[in-house]
Design brief:
The complex is a heterodimer of chains A (about 325) and B (about 325). Helices cover about 75% and strands about 0% of the residues of chain A. Chain A is mainly α. Chain A is globular and about 85 Å long. Chain A has twelve helices and no strands. Chain B is α/β, with parallel strands linked by helices. Chain B has one domain (about 5-110, about 175-260, about 270-330): P-loop containing nucleotide triphosphate hydrolases (Rossmann fold, 3-Layer(aba) Sandwich). Chain B contains twelve helices and twelve strands. Chain B has helices at about 50-55, 85-90, 110-120, 130-140, 145-150, 160-170, 190-205, 215-225, 240-245, 250-260, 300, 330-334; strands spanning about 5-20, 20-35, 40, 65-75, 75, 95, 175-180, 210-215, 225-230, 235-240, 310-315, 315-320. In chain B, α3 (about 110-120) crosses α4 (about 130-140), α3 runs parallel beside α6 and α6 (about 160-170) packs parallel to α7. The longest helix of chain B is centred in the middle third of the chain and has 18 residues, at about 190-205. The N and C termini of chain B lie far apart (about 45 Å). The chains are: A mainly alpha (about 325), B alpha/beta (about 325). Chain B: Pfam families: ABC_tran (PF00005), oligo_HPY (PF08352). Chain B: InterPro entries: AAA+_ATPase (IPR003593), ABC_Ni/Peptide_Import (IPR050388), ABC_transporter-like_ATP-bd (IPR003439), ABC_transporter-like_CS (IPR017871), Oligopep_ABC_C (IPR013563), P-loop_NTPase (IPR027417). Chain B: Keywords: ATP-binding, Cell inner membrane, Cell membrane, Membrane, Nucleotide-binding, Translocase, Transport. Chain B: It is found in: Cell membrane.
Chain lengths: ~325, ~325
């Protein structure tokens, strides 16, 4: 088992290098540089050129890349051009917000999707199954922001049950009140995200259960005299969970992308909101860092999927 | 001495709900299995062999199938038992070996745990005894290193070993009756004989009855005591093995034997039975359905015949009268 994990971790190194080179080159390909904006009618082009030379922008790309990369490895992603703060500082504070929101949303998604899939599979073909299938097609098909806006309007403005923005209310004093306030601010966005995000898990698990329950080994278990409940939990459900485990990596990968809409609409200051702000203001250093972070998340997601698969499915373990 | 009757099937009929219609898959099958007896159930794919075995195990889905007639196992009527009552008998009184051992073992569970699960349903052993019992069983089915195999997963074993595991599962609770559904079909030819030998040995040691489902007449000749031949959901002939091979009566039995290669006779072409088993919807069980596939006996094919088999020699039962006049074309010429 440890061998699989270490092997998988080692595999990430070349992946990370390729990813960072690609992102660096794409960022380089974008028009302009930090000093383009400084050019005015009174600036001396020679002065700008000197600044470029000093900043290393005239070096060959691979030198610039190693410079950028070694800084990045030290946690230095440069300065935000619009907010005049270190990128790492900007990202750091918001990353924690996004982390908690995403974690809550992911947990809620699984808590909703798994029982839903079991219930649908056990009632296959009946109206209960049909209702859940239709629900999942609708939530998959509708653009998420439509529902987000609707949720804010109904539960935030009309009913006033939940706050319509922010992460913590300024009145909260003491760590307990602050924690409560933080959770309170996350409930509406996290629940809405979870209710809209069930489709993948629901579909994989439902069809997994339907497939597995007709497998021969289920017949064997019945022939052994195993009771129906044990057959479901020990045999059918365990095997049907395999695709869910594989899917977990994609869920991780999709988090930041999903957060872009949710955080922007729910006014939640996380990475997603920062991403939108950075893109609209052409804040390249922030964009580059966020894309790199997203790429790293995708790699980690894939790795987690592989490791989880190796844990749950003995056929995948490489001896 | 009359052997103890283990399983008695009387007029066993199984219908399935297919596209809104009840269609009869097996019709009025009478079959008895005694202690110390290996009964082979022979027939082409689609003849209803497995349907019969599944009915004995009570594994047909209640909402999509209907089982009528009577199946008694050690004097207990099985038809009409609830799924819970049936689950208690499965494994305990009757064990089953399936065709494809890779598909029939849970890929995520260790071999030892799968065998343990079969015994854990019964509460006969102390928790500490299970491990020892698992190793004993693995040893009984000829696994060389039981401790190692118990820790392995199904995909790590060879096909022959997997089938040995299936046998260990089936006999874990010492059932009186073992149903083996095509136990050698998915195996290498070299392994087939070993597995058959193992089944036979375990049957003799435990004085169990075995229902062996197969389409392989070589297997039948090797291990069976009694042979029942099935066609389109009905028994067409039933006899002790020597009698059946020496004096096959029903046209279907004779065609089957004729289509099997023989070492004694030099043959360029094997006999091929024309046509296929009719679809369920087209089966009229009041006729001799096989005659539809005998072009030169069409006048008899439409005549209704009795459901019961007729005893034509001691312990030798045949369905209908067509066997009296049936001849292969080249025999007619001579």
């Amino acid at each position: 088992m440890w061998k699989v994990i270490i092997r998988r971790l080692l595999m990430m190194i070349p992946q990370l290098i390729i990813l960072s080179v690609l992102i660096f080159l794409l960022a380089k390909a974008m028009p302009g540089d930090p000093f383009s904006g400084l050019i005015g009618p009174k600036t001396d082009p020679k002065q700008i050129e000197a600044l470029r030379e000093a900043a290393g922008l005239n070096d060959p790309w691979w030198q610039q890349y190693t410079h950028w990369m070694s800084n990045a490895l030290h946690g230095d992603f440069g300065m935000s051009y619009t907010m005049h703060l270190p990128v790492s500082e900007l990202i750091g504070s918001r990353m924690i917000n996004t982390f908690w929101l995403s974690l809550l949303a992911v947990i809620l998604t699984y808590l909703i999707a798994i029982p839903m899939a079991i219930f649908a599979a056990k009632n296959e073909g009946s109206w209960k199954d049909q209702v859940l299938l239709v629900y999942n097609s609708i939530t998959f098909g509708i653009p998420a922001y439509v529902i987000y806006l609707f949720a804010i309007f109904v539960f935030g403005f009309v009913l006033g049950w939940f706050p319509t923005g922010g992460t913590v209310s300024p009145e909260a004093s003491g760590w307990l009140a602050e924690l409560g306030s933080r959770i309170y601010h996350m409930i509406l966005p996290a629940t809405t995200m979870a209710l809209l995000g069930t489709t993948g898990i629901f579909t994989y698990l439902r069809s997994g259960i339907l497939d597995e329950q007709n497998q021969d080994y289920v017949k064997t278990a019945r022939a052994k005299g195993v009771g129906e409940n044990a057959i479901f939990t020990r045999h059918i459900f365990r095997n049907a969970l395999l695709p869910i485990a594989a899917n977990f990596g994609f869920v991780i990968t999709g988090l930041l992308g999903g957060a872009i809409f949710a955080e922007t609409i729910f006014g939640y200051p996380g990475l997603g909101q920062l991403f939108i702000t950075a893109i609209t203001s052409r804040d390249y250093s922030v964009i580059t860092a966020l894309i790199l972070l997203n790429g790293v998340l995708a790699l980690i997601g894939g790795m987690l999927s592989d490791i989880i698969m190796a844990i749950v499915d003995p056929r995948i373990r490489i001896e | 001495m009359e052997k103890q009757l283990l399983l008695s099937g009387k007029k066993v009929t199984v219908s399935f709900m297919i596209n809104g219609d009840w269609q009869t898959a097996i019709y009025q099958v009478d079959l008895d299995i005694h202690r110390d007896e290996v009964v082979a159930l022979v027939g082409e794919s689609g003849s209803g062999k497995s349907t019969f075995a599944t009915a004995v195990m009570g594994l047909h889905k209640a909402n999509q199938s209907k089982v009528t007639g009577s199946i008694t196992l050690a004097d207990q009527e099985l038809i009409g038992l609830s799924n819970l009552e049936m689950a208690k008998l499965r494994g305990e009184k009757v064990g089953m070996i399936f065709q494809d051992p890779l598909a029939a073992l849970n890929p995520l569970m260790r071999i030892g745990d799968q065998i343990k699960e079969a015994m854990a349903m019964r509460d006969v052993y102390q928790p500490s005894e299970y491990k020892q019992r698992v190793l004993e069983l693995l040893d009984q089915v000829g696994i060389v290193n039981p401790a190692r195999t118990a820790r392995q997963f199904p995909h790590q074993l060879s096909g022959g070993m997997r089938q040995r595991i299936m046998i260990a599962l089936a006999i874990a609770n010492n059932p009186d009756l073992i149903i083996a559904d095509e136990p050698t079909t998915a195996l290498d030819v070299t392994i087939q004989a070993q597995i058959l030998d193992l089944i036979k040995r375990i049957q003799e040691k435990k004085h169990a009855g075995v229902l062996l489902i197969t389409h392989d007449l070589g297997v039948v000749a090797e291990v069976a005591d009694t042979v029942a031949v099935m066609y389109a959901g009905q028994l067409v002939e039933k006899a002790p093995v020597a009698e059946l091979f020496a004096h096959p009566k029903h046209p279907y039995t004779r065609s089957l034997l004729k289509s099997n290669p023989s070492i004694e006779q030099e043959q360029d072409d094997l006999y091929v039975i024309p046509g296929t088993v009719p679809a369920l919807a087209e089966m009229d069980h009041h006729k001799d359905l096989f005659l539809q596939r005998v072009p030169w006996m069409q006048e008899l094919a439409d005549q209704p015949i009795a459901d019961e088999l007729v005893e034509v020699a001691p312990q030798h039962f045949v369905r209908g009268e067509a066997w009296r006049t049936f001849e292969f074309p080249e025999e007619q010429v001579q």
